[in-house]
Design brief:
189 residues, Nuclear Transport Factor 2, Chain: A, 6-stranded mixed β-sheet, alpha+beta, 6 strands, single chain
């Protein structure tokens, strides 16, 4: 797929039902007819068309959301970091939208959530536990794909990178890159 596919789009793809994801990719990317997609999914062409339609609607909803300003994103990232460091569960929950989603990429090299985590409470608890376990000692805001991201370090080595989507001053999507092979391309402090 086009290299310009946003991280937000990838997050949405992760949250689609498998049948929706298959129908969307096979039809919209590879131009498969719905009759062939129905064979793959074990359903009808009409059901395959419906899966693709639902997937397109969810993707369009994400693409239409306005982005938070750079200053707002940096403010929320700094507040998130401070609350996680302090073990402030209530503060984290206040920064996260109730329906917030979290995805992580450990690349099989480090421990990361295997599935997306949904909800402010579970994400806040996860953030606090990760700080307690990994004990990072430095952070800084860097630019990734034209947006602010929170780079977290231990001993001068980048251990994870957080990017967020924000609506109404609250995090709606948190993406954590912890795969050391990918992080090595970003650098150290």
């Amino acid at each position: 797929m086009d290299e310009s596919v946003s991280t937000a789009m990838l997050v949405v793809m992760e949250t689609l039902a498998p049948a929706e994801r298959v129908a969307l990719v096979l039809h919209d990317v590879f131009d498969f007819p719905f009759s062939r997609i129905a064979e793959v999914l074990g359903g009808t062409p009409a059901a395959s068309r419906k899966h693709a339609s639902r997937a397109r609607a969810r993707v369009a909803a994400v693409e239409q959301r306005p982005r938070a300003s750079r200053a707002e994103t940096e403010r929320v990232l700094r507040a998130f970091k401070a609350a996680a460091d302090a073990g402030d569960m209530a503060g984290l929950i206040e920064l996260l939208a109730p329906e917030a989603g979290y995805v992580a990429d450990g690349g099989g090299k480090v421990t990361a959530a295997r599935r997306p985590v949904q909800g402010a409470g579970p994400i806040a608890l996860l953030a606090i536990r990760q700080i307690e376990i990994r004990r990072p000692d430095a952070f800084r805001i860097i630019e990734v794909n034209g947006q602010p991201a929170l780079a977290t370090y231990r001993g001068g080595v980048l251990v994870w990178l957080d990017t967020v989507e924000i609506a109404g001053g609250r995090i709606t999507a948190l993406r954590r890159l912890a795969n050391p092979e990918k992080l090595a391309r970003i650098g150290h402090i």
